[in-house]
Structure formats: C-alpha cells, structure tokens
Amino acid sequence: METIAVFVNEAAAARRILQPMLRADAPTHWVLVACPPVLTRHIGRWVSQSARRQWRERWAADLFAALAPELQAPAGSVLETLLAGRPLVAVSARLQARWPQLRLLDARAPRVGRVDEPISATQAASAANRWAAPAAATAGLSVVLILAD
Hints:
This protein is of the alpha/beta class. It has one domain (about 1-149): Rossmann fold, CATH 3.40.50. Helices cover about 40% and strands about 15% of the residues. It is built from 4 helices and 4 strands, in the order βαβαβαβα. The chain has a 4-stranded parallel beta sheet, sandwiched between helices. Strand 1 (about 1-10), helix 1 (about 10-20) and strand 2 (about 30-35) form a beta-alpha-beta unit. Helix 1 (about 10-20) runs parallel beside helix 2. The relative contact order is 0.19.
C-alpha cells in the first residue's frame, strides 16, 4: 500500500488535484495535512491564543470532513489527519522519518500575490506566483485605459 501525504488548504483545489489519483481505486494510506491560513499579527489584539488554536482546529475539522469520504472510498484505504504547524519543511521531514517511502503531494490552492511556503527542502518557491498580483494590476489598468479612449 502506497503512503501519500497531501498538504491541503482548500477542499475544492485538493479535489481537482486528487481526482485522477482517486480513479485508480487502489488502496492507499492517505496522510491529510491541513495548512490553515496564517492570521495577521494584528488579530492578536482581539483574539487569544486559545481562540486561535480552536479556530484552527475547527477549520481543519471542516476541511477533513469535506475530503475524508472521497479519500476513504476505495476499499482498504486508510486516512490519517494532521494539523500542520510551521515550518512545513519540518512537518514533512517528521512524516518522512515516520514513513520512509512517503510521497509528498502539494495540493494547496495558489494565492494571488503570495508565495507559498515550500513543503520540502527540494521544492523551490515558485517565482511565477510572485508576479501574479503586479501582472493582474497592470492588465486591469490597461483595460481601463483602453475603455477610457
């Protein structure tokens, strides 16, 4: 049985990436790693650390509930869940120490204007994503200037 760790931050994006793998109907040991959004430092004024932790756990439980039925559908598949802390490289290193033949899969939805944290030491941060927001702003301004004429 193959063991795959899937790093997820959004259920819809993960479904698109996992769909071809789920069609195989082979039993798989899934390790679903939830990567919750990072809250700003200013939220600390209104929310305590325990409330943040509870929010992260509720957010992860909703994500796991959305993806668990699809991952457990093939007979013999096993699902483990994990709420990731930072840095993700350390989380993936601990997982690979536990399962030496582990395959890592980054199924996180890309965020416009933000570079995602790499999940392993060999994964390079995508430089193309860094230019997404400036390119979108430039394209939007170009459209406005064309329509203004």
